[in-house]
Design brief:
This protein is mostly helical and 121 residues long. Helices cover 57% and strands 10% of the residues.
Length: 121
């Protein structure tokens, strides 16, 4: 069990070195609460962690990349653009609400939007 946890931490550390990290701060938490309330009124329930990802993406004005199993949850979130991961791998860019953005541009935008809390590239 300890080896598995260590392996996961190593994978997360490697990922954190390559992509920007975004703080789940007050603005994102407020977006999460608004989404939760809106969806709950409609009888739509999405796992809290998926809703946190959706709230963060909407706050940053980004879409989300998902695998086949997670797509349905995210498609229930109003105004969230959902892109299957297979297409992402083919084009090598990130989706940003109707247009693509290079990875370096996405890092700069994420860093700017969250007060410089993104990891350096």
């Amino acid at each position: 069990m300890a080896a598995r946890a260590s392996s996961r931490r190593a994978k997360l550390g490697s990922l954190a070195e390559r992509v920007p990290l975004v703080e789940f701060g007050r603005e994102v938490a407020e977006r999460w609460a608004e989404l939760f309330a809106r969806l709950s009124r409609r009888g739509v329930h999405i796992p809290a962690n998926d809703l946190a990802v959706a709230a963060t993406a909407l706050y940053l004005d980004f879409g989300v990349l998902v695998g086949a199993r997670g797509e349905e949850h995210f498609r229930r979130v109003p105004r969230l653009q959902v892109q299957p991961l297979a297409l992402q791998a083919a084009v090598g860019t990130r989706v940003r609400l109707g247009r693509s953005v290079s990875r370096s541009s996405a890092r700069r935008q994420a860093s700017h939007r969250v007060g410089g809390h993104a990891t350096p590239a």
